[in-house]
Amino acid sequence: MKNRFLKKALGMVLAGAMTMALIPAMPAAAAGEITIGVTSFADTLEPTTQYFSWVVSRYAIGECLTKFDQNGEIVPCLAESWENSEDGLTWTFTIREGVKFSNGDDMTPELVMASIQRVCDKSDRVPEFFDLESMEIDGQKLIFHLNRANANMAGSLADPLFLIVDTNVDDSNWEMEGPICTGPYAVESFSPTDSCVVVKNEYYWDGEVPLDRVTLKCVDDQTTRSMALQTGEIDIAYNLKTENLIEFEGNPNYEIQELQSLRSTYAFMNQNGALGDLALRQALLRGLDKQTYCDVLLEGGATAGKAPVPPTLDFGFDELNDENAYDPEGAKAILAEAGYVDNDGDGFVETPDGDALTLNFVIYTSRAELGVYAQAAQSNLKDIGINVNLETVSYETLLDKRDSGQYDLLIWNVLVANTGDPENYLRENWYSTSANNTAGYNNPEVDALLDELAATFDEDARRDLIIQIQQHIMDDAATVFFGYETTYLFNNTRVTGVNMYPMDYYWLTKDIKLAE
User: Fold this and answer.
1) Please, are residues 196 and 56 in contact by the beta-carbon 8 Å criterion?
2) What separation in angstroms does the CA of 511 have from each of 58, 208, 507?
3) I need a surface site. Which of 36, 79, 212, 261 has the fewest CB within 10 A?
4) Distance of CA 178 to CAs 12, 33, 413, Å?
5) Which runs of E-coded beta strand occur in 104-253?
């Protein structure tokens, strides 16, 4: 059954003629090897650190009990099947037999339980997915007993945070050498700023692995990544943008896939500082011309944002009321009424107490559109008298600043349906006690609605609750929702089996092979 909430999915683009110079002949590559161009993301392969388990999944090293197919549906992976109690407090997963880790060890229910327990012990993100009371083994079955009802446990366990590792081995070197998992490939070498090289897992359980070696090469600069694909230095390029289309459209040597975004780019507003003032947050939001950012600056490569969940998912985008839509004159009026006045004539308002006001906006470097949004916002906010300082850092440093609350605004770009629908995304970012809610957002009604959502199985009721939660977040002027970008995947025809997934946990897969 197709995910009923996914309104737009994938489209393959093989366009007509193009007007570009002939691309140089591709250099010969070793038999059974390909190179994929990626943006740097992780400084460690330890899967319980931050969100770096995504890399372990994307590089086809690790797998979970469940996974998402190309329609966004939850399907079996290392678990063959699952069932739940009516109250959502007990979930039973039947563990697949005959699976081995990449070192040849058998994957047993006991090791699966130990792997899940390792995540619970090491990651403070687990409570945002489920509240675990205990686990037990019954033959091939792993039984979860929860303190809080969870209507979507199977989706929760598809998040790469819960990929299954061999806990019988020494994990002290996993940061640089990678964990021992069950995926089609295993780590050969890893350099955070350069590349990750993976090799065929000879023990893989789900069919023949077609490639001997894959290099996942970090190429952060978008233009350089595009040129690398054109020259044959890489075979697949992730995270190219609308402006790159003209470089490849119409050339039969390339395939282009497009996904209307299930991602949201937004900025947390830290309510523990100056942005604790609702009036200032409202004025800031009304000063941002997000439609122009997306239509003009990003050349139509994004849909203008207003809500937590993009319109590609059927969770009420058109029904939601945005009282803080673009209105620069209204923004100035709110500032003046709240006592934000430019007393010294420098073009920027001071606080109602007469202090200088400068908002520090932290952004990271590996996604080109983030800088576009931030610079445009800085310019727009200058026009209404709000001074913004941009601080550009690596993704890893951004995580540190988020966790320590060292920001006024902080850019973020995430998949909004990482467990199949937006429940976990909403809880992780806007539940008052979430470890990731360092912005200090606290609305008891949102907390209550999220708790109700966790125990609600009916899809229509879940949809209604998610709409209500979004409206509260918007009414509270809690977050800047910039836009929802279209995602592209480019590859040369030297490789086949390259597919995009709505849940972008799967970049390298066992289906990718050399064309015959």
Assistant:
1) no
2) 13, 10, 10
3) 212
4) 33, 20, 25
5) 132-138, 141-146, 185-191, 195-200, 213-218, 236-240
How far apart are alpha carbons 64 and 73 in whole angstroms? 14
**pLDDT tens-digit map of 184-197:** 999 999 998 899 99
Q: Could you tell me the two tokens for 303?
A: 């849909």
Characterize the bridge pairing of strands 33-38 and 236-240. Answer: parallel
Rounded to whole angstroms, how far apart are CA atoms 61 and 78? 13
- Cβ contact 337:510 at 8 Å: no
Residues in the chain: 516
pLDDT digits (tens, 9 = 90+) for 23-55: 333 444 566 999 999 987 788 999 999 889 999
Cα-atom radius of gyration of the chain, to the nearest Å? 23
Measured CA distances, 459 to 462, 463, 466 (Å): 5, 6, 11
* Closest-CA residue to 284 (of 408, 416, 442): 408
Judged by DSSP in three states, 95 sits in strand
Q: What average pLDDT does the segment 92-108 reach?
A: 98
Using alpha carbons only, what angle is made at residue 255 by residues 508 and 240, rounded to the nearest 5 degrees?
A: 70
For residue 366, pLDDT over 80 is answered with no
Q: Tens of pLDDT along 308-322?
A: 999 999 999 999 999
The CA distance from 462 to 259, in Å, is 25
Q: Both tokens of residue 9?
A: 């999915």
| Assigned token pair, 15 | 């366009």
Q: Please say if the pLDDT value at position 1 is more than 60.
A: no
Per-residue pLDDT at 235: 98
Helices (H), 169-265: 174-177, 222-231
Which of 82, 70, 76, 66 shows the shortest CA–CA distance to 155?
Answer: 66
Sign for the pseudo-dihedral over CA of 161, 166, 169, 174: negative
Q: What is the pLDDT of residues 123-164, one digit of tens each?
A: 999 998 999 999 999 999 999 999 999 999 999 999 999 999
Half-sphere exposure (CA, 13 Å, Cβ side) for 220? 13
Return mean pLDDT, the chain.
Answer: 92
